[in-house]
Amino acid sequence: MSESTPICPQCASEQNYFDGTFTVCLECGHEWDVASTTSTQELDVKDSNGNPLANGDDVILIKDLKLKGSSTVLKKGAKAKGIRLVEGDHEIDCKVDGMKIMLKACFVKKA
């Protein structure tokens, strides 16, 4: 393997390949996005109270949010476990009430 080959974050193996979207480990089968794991380490995202957020944190919605293009409303107090920080207008990628959504950090507080 070359020096640019990423190491699996789960089993530390260098035996992996890029499938077009994710990098896949041949030993343990773990899939990850190399671009997002390196770029999210540098993100400085803060919740509505100014507390820094990190990948894997749990957050709680501070107000009711209507989902654009849907009649669904996410209620104040709903919890999102194990968030993932991403670049862009909506900084948080998570699941709330079983739906995968992206949220702005100003609408959540750290749990």
From TrEMBL:
InterPro entries attached to this UniProt entry: YjdM, YjdM_C, YjdM_N
Domain of life: Bacteria
Residue span(s) of domain Protein YjdM N-terminal: 5-33
Residue span(s) of domain Protein YjdM C-terminal: 45-111
Pfam families: YjdM (PF03831), Zn_Ribbon_YjdM (PF08274)
Family the UniProt entry places it in: Belongs to the YjdM family.
Protein's name according to its UniProt entry: Alkylphosphonate utilization operon protein PhnA
Native source species: Snodgrassella communis
Phylogenetic classification of the source organism: Bacteria, Pseudomonadati, Pseudomonadota, Betaproteobacteria, Neisseriales
